[in-house]
Write a structure and sequence with these properties.
Structural class: alpha+beta
Distance between the termini: 47 Å
CATH superfamily of the domain at 3-113: Jelly Rolls
CATH topology of the domain at 3-113: Jelly Rolls
CATH class of the domain at 3-113: Mainly Beta
Number of strands: 8
Shape: globular
Order of helices and strands: HHEEEEEEEEHHH
Largest sheet: 4 strands, antiparallel
CATH architecture of the domain at 3-113: Sandwich
Number of helices: 5
Length: 174
């Protein structure tokens, strides 16, 4: 199956005509990664996102010498999306091919120059949904951690204005 046919089978491009999908494939030619290949490294400059057409990618973060898998990217999902919105940003995670994988490379210029292409409009909607889900999940995990830290802090120190409360003031919620 070629890239245009693969895109036409994805839910995010339901109802998008094949000419628009073909144009997307011309703007963002598919690239392949063999299993074990590092696609992005945490800390590298970020300039593109990937839409996974085939295969599977693994995502891990490193902190204080520890490596922790934080997720997997499946067919139809996007990874590296903050590169499209944050100028001069750095990669927040390392992404590796877990299987032979084929992806479209999406860059900022495509989002601006191709806004009349219905495939790009569908991709932009998908990007917004992806960002929203990831922000929501981060907020839920942060709230859970704040609650755990708050209980531990109260038990250990009895402080009412500790780190948890400072974080709540800074970020809201909790």
């Amino acid at each position: 199956m070629n890239a245009t046919e693969t895109l036409s089978s994805m839910f995010i491009f339901k109802g998008v005509n094949k000419a628009a999908l073909h144009e997307l494939c011309i703007m963002a030619p598919p690239v392949s990664f063999q299993p074990g290949i590092t696609v992005f490294s945490q800390g590298d400059a970020s300039d593109v996102a990937l839409l996974l057409l085939d295969g599977k990618l693994g995502v891990e973060v490193s902190s204080a010498g520890q490596h922790r898998e934080v997720g997997q990217i499946n067919v139809g999902e996007i990874v590296g999306e903050t590169a499209l919105f944050a100028r001069e940003g750095k990669r927040s995670a390392t992404v590796r091919a877990l299987q032979t994988s084929q992806c479209l490379l999406i860059n900022r210029e495509m989002l601006v120059s191709a806004s009349r292409n219905e495939a790009m409009i569908a991709l932009e909607r998908h990007l917004l949904g992806t960002l929203t889900r990831r922000i929501r999940r981060t907020n839920q995990e942060t709230a859970k951690l704040w609650k755990e830290l708050g209980i531990q802090q109260e038990a250990n120190t009895g402080e009412s204005e500790g780190i948890v409360n400072k974080l709540k003031k800074l970020f809201g919620g909790g």
